[in-house]
Design brief:
The complex is a heterodimer. Chain A has twelve helices and 14 strands. Chain A is of the alpha/beta class. Chain A is globular and about 65 Å long. Chain B is about 45% helix and about 10% strand. The chains are: A alpha/beta, B alpha/beta.
């Protein structure tokens, strides 16, 4: 049975399932109770589960994560909402020094059942600090897992899988896609939390991305098809760890790779994928793997964000550049 | 407005002091028990310092001078209470039953923790200042939801009081009426930084601004520390919310074995605090009020020596674990980069019994 819903609604319903299944699951965040969160993702959940389980917190991100650590030590599982990507940095120390390292430090005694929901990426015309892509900081940290949903179906299931995980999860939600609808299969989750998904099969060039870039890549593949080029589109879903085998299999078929991401290029998911693919597919590559990314500038004023964010045109330009090496 | 006066029940000379709000409830046997604990903890601390000087520990953070605060607070805890330490609370760890050798696993660099926190209801050391204060508040929020008849206590120092997490933990504890006791050992220095750089008025006064009681206690008087902490824990357990305790004490030794306190403080100050030693004042009380004789003291000292020898043997028997253990417990579930790392170390012959 499938149902059509927005990603926002799918997250709400996924959270409701997670809360219903396990009474130890809690949620903490700013404005998540009566208001339902600034994006209304937790709409109605405090009314359904009470103020002890859906906690409107003081406005202190470090404390949202730090107290979630203490709750985890006590056996609770907290799904934390950080209101916007650019507000996660006050909690950076608790995430990197405590959440990520507690299992190791305690030789397995502590389980950090913590999900940190992070509305990320741009595209909503917001002011500064509301459109960033901080996933790389967390992907770089051993002990954390970083995932991103790109469809309502994945939003519904991945948030439930994250709530059950015994490892801490940074859960990146592409806020510009919150209001786009899609089919959700309410019975079959499909993939596990760490698998990539091939969203469109193709033979000429592999496109790889995550979050909001997935839809853009699919549009680029449509446009390329009308010009006779067949693009394969992979939605990474998991940023850390990477399902590099799925990318590798694709590139061994196509011989060309373009990674698409909003975050700047330096030391990023894209650069990691390019490095791995050059190692694994050295003899199959027809051209160097390329990255289409945000530029190395602070996220720009929103009047310029369409230039900064990878667009269909910039992705197709990247595809063209992989053909520039043909003899 | 709360009083800046230190709660004191025992003078530095070992004389009883009357206090309007607190009366010592401890028997002669109890006080002797505290004396024993303080002597042992100091002796073990000296042994750890020696072990570090002999190259057997990577580092040691001595606690000399702070035994009164730590043993007094440790005695006030019940088994079901949970404590979140910083990294210098060797006396509290002793009271919670953590084996001394396990406390040194961190400093021997064979673990980043050292013991099972659930076995002693005593969390692992936290080195990043004040981080553990938020963990304590979160744990207390869990206790509230479990309707537990218990409280949580967290230890921090005057230095940590300037961290944002310390202040955020005060806000949260107050807003949610969390059953937590914030126990500050104001030992007057954060490495070289004097507490006058951390606060211009007594730290305990801060509690007033957050809406809960702040109490200053003579940290070198374990009788007073015990009563103040016991009352604060009881208040927390019965739904009264948080309390901030500022235990005014002095770090007699260095910050750690890597520190040189002679560069930032004067000998006269150290001499002054020697006269306020928590062990000496309890010894004086036991001698004149409970007729403790030299043989009883010698028996405690011999027990402490025995434990110190045992500690030395245990530490010397700790060896670096197999390199492959580096990859254990990073994640609960399988992870490809962990598998990759294990394989690499094994193939290079650096671990897994192939070295």
């Amino acid at each position: 049975m499938t149902e059509t819903m927005t990603m926002a609604k799918a997250l709400t319903e996924g959270l409701r399932q997670a809360m219903t299944e396990n009474p130890k699951v809690m949620m903490m965040g700013e404005d998540i109770g009566k208001l339902g969160g600034v994006f209304r993702i937790t709409d109605g959940l405090q009314a359904a589960f009470g103020e002890d389980r859906v906690v409107d917190t003081p406005l202190s991100e470090s404390a949202i994560i730090g107290t979630a650590v203490g709750l985890a030590i006590r056996g609770y599982r907290t799904i934390c909402e950080i209101q916007f990507d650019g507000f996660v940095y006050p909690a950076f120390d608790q995430i990197v020094s405590q959440v990520a390292k507690m299992r190791k430090r305690s030789e397995g005694a502590y389980t950090m059942g913590i999900v940190i929901r992070l509305p990320f990426q741009g595209g909503i015309g917001a002011i500064e600090h509301h459109s960033e892509s901080p996933e790389t900081y967390f992907a770089h940290t051993p002990g954390l897992r970083v995932v991103s949903c790109a469809t309502p179906h994945d939003a519904y299931w991945m948030i439930q899988q994250a709530a059950k995980s015994n490892d801490p999860i940074i859960f990146c939600e592409p806020k510009s896609r919150y209001w786009e609808k899609g089919e959700v299969d309410l019975h079959e989750p499909g993939l596990s939390l760490s698998d990539a998904a091939v969203r469109r099969e193709g033979t000429d060039v592999t496109l790889v991305g995550y979050g909001s870039s997935v839809k853009t890549m699919l549009r680029a593949a449509d446009a390329a098809a009308s010009e006779g080029r067949s693009l394969e589109v992979i939605d990474l879903r998991s940023i850390a760890p990477l399902d590099i085998a799925t990318v590798e299999a694709s590139v061994k078929k196509t011989g060309r790779l373009v990674v698409v991401q909003e975050t700047p290029h330096l030391a990023s998911v894209g650069s990691e994928i390019v490095s791995e693919i050059h190692r694994r597919c050295f003899y199959e590559l027809q051209a160097p793997a390329l990255i289409v990314s945000g530029y190395h500038v602070p996220y720009p004023i929103s009047r310029l964000e369409d230039v900064y964010r990878p667009s269909v045109d910039r992705i197709l330009d990247g595809v063209d550049r992989t053909y520039a090496y043909d003899a | 407005m709360q009083s800046d006066q230190l709660v004191q029940l025992l003078s530095p000379e070992g004389q009883r002091v009357d206090h309007p709000d607190y009366v010592s409830s401890l028997s002669g046997d109890d006080i002797f028990g505290m004396f024993r604990d303080m002597v042992i903890v100091r002796r073990l601390c000296d042994e750890a310092t020696s072990l570090q000087r002999q190259g057997q520990l990577a580092l040691w953070a001595p606690s000399q001078g702070q035994e009164g605060a730590q043993i007094g607070a440790g005695w006030a805890l019940r088994p079901d209470d949970f404590a979140f330490p910083s990294y210098r609370e060797h006396g509290v760890a002793w009271c919670r039953g953590v084996p001394p050798a396990d406390q040194l696993r961190l400093f021997r660099a064979v673990s980043n923790g050292g013991w099972d926190p659930y076995a002693y209801n005593y969390a692992l050391p936290t080195i990043v200042l004040a981080d553990q204060m938020l963990h304590a508040v979160g744990y207390g929020m869990g206790m509230q939801r479990d309707k537990a008849d218990a409280a949580v206590i967290t230890f921090f120092g005057d230095g940590a009081s300037s961290q944002g997490d310390a202040l955020e933990s005060f806000v949260w504890a107050s807003s949610f009426n969390v059953p937590v006791v914030f126990f500050c050992q104001n030992n007057q220095f954060g490495i070289s930084t004097p507490s006058s750089t951390q606060f211009r008025v007594p730290l305990a006064r801060r509690a007033d601004g957050f809406g809960f009681p702040g109490i200053r206690v003579d940290g070198n008087d374990p009788l007073a520390v015990y009563e103040v902490t016991k009352q604060a824990l009881e208040r927390a357990r019965s739904g009264g919310g948080p309390t901030l305790i500022e235990a005014y004490t002095y770090r007699m030794g260095a910050h750690t074995t890597s520190d040189d306190p002679t560069r930032y403080r004067i000998d006269a100050e150290v001499e002054l605090w020697k006269h306020r030693d928590p062990i000496e004042r309890v010894k004086a009380l036991l001698t004149h009020e409970f007729a403790m004789h030299r043989p009883a003291v010698e028996a405690v000292e011999q027990e402490a020596d025995r434990l110190a020898r045992q500690l030395r043997d245990d530490v010397l028997a700790m060896h670096a674990p197999d390199a492959l253990t580096m990859f254990d417990n990073v994640y609960a579930d399988p992870h490809p980069l962990i598998d990759e790392g294990r394989l690499d170390v094994t193939e290079l012959g650096l671990g897994g019994g192939s070295a």
